[in-house]
Amino acid sequence: MNKINTFQTTTRTIMGPGAIKNIVAEAKRLGGTKAMIITDPGLVKTGIVNELESLLNKGNIGFSRFDSVEADPSYETAITAAEQVKKDGADIIIGIGGGSAQDIAKVSSILVTNKGPISEYFGIDLVPNPGMKLILIPTTAGTGSEVTPIAILSDHKEKLKKGIVSMHLFPSTALLDPLLTVGLPPHVTAATGMDALIHAIEAFTSKNATDMTDMLAIQAIKLINKNIRTAYANGENLEAREGMLEGSMLAGMAFANAGVTAVHAFAYPIGAEFHIPHGVANSIMLVPVMEFNMLGNLEKFARLAEILGEKTQGLSLRDSALRAVETLRTLTIDLNVPNKLSSFGVKASDIPELAKGVMKVTRLLANNPRVLRVEDAEAIYKRVL
Ligand SMILES: NC(=O)c1ccc[n+]([C@@H]2O[C@H](COP(=O)([O-])OP(=O)(O)OC[C@H]3O[C@@H](n4cnc5c(N)ncnc54)[C@H](O)[C@@H]3O)[C@@H](O)[C@H]2O)c1
Ligand SMILES: [Fe+2]
User: Family per UniProt (predicted)?
Assistant: First the structure.
């Protein structure tokens, strides 16, 4: 190691089937008497939010609810949610849902304790004060948002997704209950699971990877690779769901420190403009970006094939790396995730602007194992048009 590295993560995670039952004890431990539940309408329909509310009720913790978080939420939603937190006098926030609901919960918690405006906080370490007490409960496996200091919000005017990165975005506690993910529909299981796998792969191949992040990323890749097909094909399989939830958390811990790379940089412009779900956008970009990136660190991409369970004995580094790419291509086919941008309305004439959008995601391109130019970005988008 020839440079100084920082490692940070959520200080308290509680995981296992039924972990949601710990919500009252956790809220009380943190001094919470009135909670604001931040979630999305899809999750309300599943009955999971009612289950949470009935636990709070029994535990004598007051609550109100902000349940209008949309997919790939806008920064305006965070402002509205924070206003409701203040109006209702909540003293603790509980974010329950996928990355969208959790990110709005995270940003609301810092908007209440900082004067704003929110535009001052986009970027790295620009939030002055710690946020309100916050508990996060992921229900997709997933973004790993429960263990990252990151929140991603859409700016519809600029047609961009922007990140707030601050250690004040870590929750006080993450509660991970695989039972909550059992009802996740197959296509959402596939897309969110691919997002988690890509977090781990990108952390592992990032220029900022360390021994610590590799350890987390390798275990995440193994767990997700072992369980993703079963979780997709048989959502009721609790063991597979538990493996996915643990894998997505470990991947989150890895990328929160090593960073993600160009796959995410390509996913952001198409996600923001063509409303392609985050996991799907990442899955479409994974194979073409890996084929480009592998020359930047053949050794790591070759090791990836082994971690994915492929036999690489006797193969050159290049052939091993290609084996990893092919293994992942097969996975996206098995999971039936879309693999063409045109099926979301992207046209060849959109590519130059989208490629410029990729180049703006400098925060992630700085981690990429291979230097990327705008003409490379255009060529990569063209391959999956
Ligand atoms: N903060 C981070 O570190 C981080 C990392 C990666 C991605 N993100 C962001 O997270 C967002 C994506 O999050 P996501 O992929 O989890 O999707 P999501 O939160 O948008 O949820 C997707 C859908 O799944 C439904 N859903 C969630 N849990 C369910 C359950 N248990 N049963 C049935 N339906 C359920 C939701 O209602 C929603 O309709 C994007 O905005 C992305 O940019 C954040
Ligand atoms: Fe992601």
Answer: Belongs to the iron-containing alcohol dehydrogenase family.
